[in-house]
Design brief:
Structural class: alpha+beta
Distance between the termini: 61 Å
Oligomer: single chain
Strand content: 35-45%
Number of strands: 27
CATH superfamily of the largest domain: Acid Proteases
CATH class of the largest domain: Mainly Beta
Shape: globular
Number of domains: 4
Length: 459
């Protein structure tokens, strides 16, 4: 029976002509029953009374440079358990796959595979009676390099006739950083990743400089985009400030980043500007614990470390006794903390509004993972498109303006007394909001720099 089968490796290039996909790299996984392909902006519709689905496909991993708009008839909708054990209801389509000189119809489930290693997964149902898998080999049917694949899609290299923009960050492999580099290059700019820890400064009244590892002088960049991780706030802001002193444009200024990173100071600024926030308390002495709890309406309440980020250092105390224990434990460690009212009616949901140049360019609703009270995507939460009210939109815009941030992720919670500001992030992640909305936020960030510097593309 194996005479009619052909050998494939653990990864192979394949094509789906009916979907307009000339090349997509697939992970071959006989342990997975179903096959799946990367899809975003999935929209069901009817055609001649039958169910169809439209979706967008980015066929190249870690890239949104190529966007294919696809349509296909729906053959099923079924629950599929992913590799992390979570079950998801997915649309199923059928399309002819081409592997080398072989072609046959397979079923594909549509799902967002941005966080996966491959944009395509070939499962055992699709391979049944067709292939033999040699897991020690790769690309048994031929390999293609990046240039060859991009040529198949008609991609032309953008001329580097634009600005020189430095991305100040720590990890070049993060989705957000890759997207910003990619968006800038697509618009013809020279994008340079600058690891914050490998930059150093020359302070001199007549010839100040910024140097990079090996002694490269960075004074020739036109603009910088600071994406500073919390542990690098002090040095990252000092570096951004030095670029500013050289009259180099910073998308977010050092002062604005510093304000937003200080949770207590940022809440005081929001309060000063009459922007609604959850009732919060701050104290130094454990003697004041009981009154501190009463001040925010009693338990349940939230205890936050001022230095925490991405949900770390945040505790829900459900009873007064638990609240006293947590607060006093933190105080014994001599750490600064906030006590904040718990908005029960939010039901583990909040809004993330992405603000650029005084405009909300995208918004999502984040839902906490089961058993969690924080709507945090990094902790297993989910995100979906949401329409925000005019009041919520204005609150987000005013919050970003109060911090002095041109780019901000503004977190809002819906309470019984109206929208309340939770936090303003000066280095908001792009993956969750771009994946949920399909909006090119990285491109909008680059456009903000172009407008500020008065740069326009050559005709």
């Amino acid at each position: 029976m194996s005479d009619n089968k052909f050998i494939i490796g653990s990864e192979e290039w394949c094509a789906f002509p009916a979907l307009g996909v000339p090349a997509i790299k697939a992970r071959v996984d006989s342990g997975a029953r179903t096959s799946s392909i990367h899809a975003v902006n999935i929209r069901p519709f009817k055609r001649e009374g039958e169910p169809w689905v439209s979706f967008e496909l980015h066929p190249i991993q870690n890239s949104r440079k190529i966007i294919l708009k696809c349509e296909s008839k729906v053959v099923d909708r079924r629950n599929v358990k992913s590799s992390n054990g979570e079950s998801e209801k997915r649309y199923v389509i059928a399309s002819v796959i081409q592997l080398g000189g072989h072609a046959w119809e397979v079923e594909l489930t549509l799902t967002n595979r941005d966080s996966m290693g491959y944009r395509m997964l070939l499962g055992r149902e699709a391979m049944s009676n067709k292939t033999l898998v040699d897991p020690s080999e790769s690309f048994c049917l031929g390999e293609q390099n990046d240039n060859e694949v991009e040529a198949l899609y008609g991609v032309k290299k953008a001329k580097k006739s634009g600005l020189k923009i430095g991305l100040l960050a720590s990890n070049p492999d993060l989705y957000s950083n890759q997207r910003i580099i990619e968006a800038g290059e697509q618009r013809g700019h020279e994008m340079v990743f600058l690891n914050i820890s490998q930059c150093y400064l020359k302070l001199d009244a007549s010839s100040p400089e910024v140097h990079y590892r090996g002694g490269t002088v960075l004074n020739d960049v036109d603009a910088v985009i600071p994406r500073i991780r919390p542990s690098m706030t002090f040095y990252g802001c000092a570096l951004t400030r030095h670029f500013e002193s050289l009259n180099i444009e910073a998308l977010n200024t050092s002062d604005a980043i510093t304000r937003s990173r200080d949770k207590l100071f940022s809440l005081q600024l929001l309060q000063k500007n009459n922007l609604d926030i959850p009732t919060s308390g701050f104290a130094n002495s454990p003697v004041d614990t009981k009154d501190l709890i009463d001040m925010v309406g009693g338990a349940p309440l939230i205890v936050k470390l001022l230095e925490g980020t991405q949900g770390k250092g945040v505790v829900l105390a459900e009873t007064t006794k638990a609240a006293e224990s947590v607060i006093n434990a933190f105080k014994s460690l001599r750490v600064n903390l906030l006590v904040q009212e718990f908005i029960k009616e939010a039901q583990g949901k909040d809004l993330r509004c992405f603000v650029i140049d005084g405009k909300v360019v995208a918004s999502i609703e984040r839902t906490a993972a089961p058993g969690e009270f924080r709507a945090n995507i990094h902790m297993g939460g989910s995100a979906s498109i949401v329409s925000v009210s005019a009041a919520e939109r204005q609150l987000a815009i005013k919050a970003a303006k109060t911090m002095g941030l041109r780019v901000a992720g503004v977190d809002i919670i819906r309470s019984s007394r109206g929208p309340l500001l939770l936090e303003i992030n000066s280095s908001p992640g792009l993956e969750g909001i771009e994946s949920a909305t399909g909006i090119d936020i990285a491109g909008a960030m680059i456009e903000s720099i172009e407008k500020k510097l008065g740069w326009t593309a050559e005709a």
